[in-house]
Amino acid sequence: MASKLHFFLLLSFSFASLRISMAGDPDILVDFIPPPALFGPPAGNYFTFTGMRSLVGAPFPTTFKILKATMEEFPALEGQSVSYAVLQFPNGTVNPPHTHPRASELLFVLMGSLQVGFVDTTNKLFTQTLQQGDIFVFPKGLVHFQFNSDAKNPALGLSAFGSASPGTVKVPSAVFNSTIDDQVLALSFKTDVATIQKIKSGLSG
């Protein structure tokens, strides 16, 4: 009986591991997901995203800015397992540590230079300084960041994601702008509640 139980537990864990390894956007059994019927049959404009036109001829922003083309902004991406984001870094700005739980990210530096990095599950940090024309991959679900350390020049990046809805969990906000009890955070970060509250106050401004 014990050996049978061991076999079924092993089989269950194997199927669970397989499901996790295959996790991602679900496959669709049609060419594409059409818009709701009330919008009529799809035409070429349904497969066209014009949101990036705002970048053309526009002045560079003074703070870090992301312009996304995910399923939320571009419904035709549903079921296609791909999305984009344009990242604009004025000099000295950062895209703070964050994760994309449903996708890996491929960053292409179009202008300037960026210091990038990610932390794996053993807490090892992998960093690289990217120049214009370089590409860097951030593995799915791992904490990562991008930083324009140039004090004078902006940087521009284009990110491709392996999901139509990669999701973003911003580490500072997820930890300090959530409803996690201050005492729990103080113990976790080996500090006091007053320090935690000071950090929260700084992030909310």
TrEMBL record:
Residues that bind Mn(2+): H98, H100, E105, H144
Keyword Kinase: no
CDD domains tied to this protein: cupin_OxOx
GO cellular component, one term: apoplast
Gene3D superfamilies per record: Jelly Rolls
Compartments where found: Secreted, Extracellular space, Apoplast
Cupin type-1 domain location: 64-197
Superkingdom: Eukaryota
Signal peptide region: 1-23
Keyword set, alphabetical order: Apoplast, Glycoprotein, Manganese, Metal-binding, Secreted, Signal
GO molecular function terms listed in the Swiss-Prot or TrEMBL record: manganese ion binding
Family note: Belongs to the germin family.
Record function comment: May play a role in plant defense. Probably has no oxalate oxidase activity even if the active site is conserved.
Quaternary structure and interacting proteins, as annotated: Oligomer (believed to be a pentamer but probably hexamer).
PANTHER family registered for this protein in UniProt: GERMIN-LIKE PROTEIN SUBFAMILY 3 MEMBER 3
Name of the featured protein: Germin-like protein
Lineage of source species: Eukaryota, Viridiplantae, Streptophyta, Embryophyta, Tracheophyta
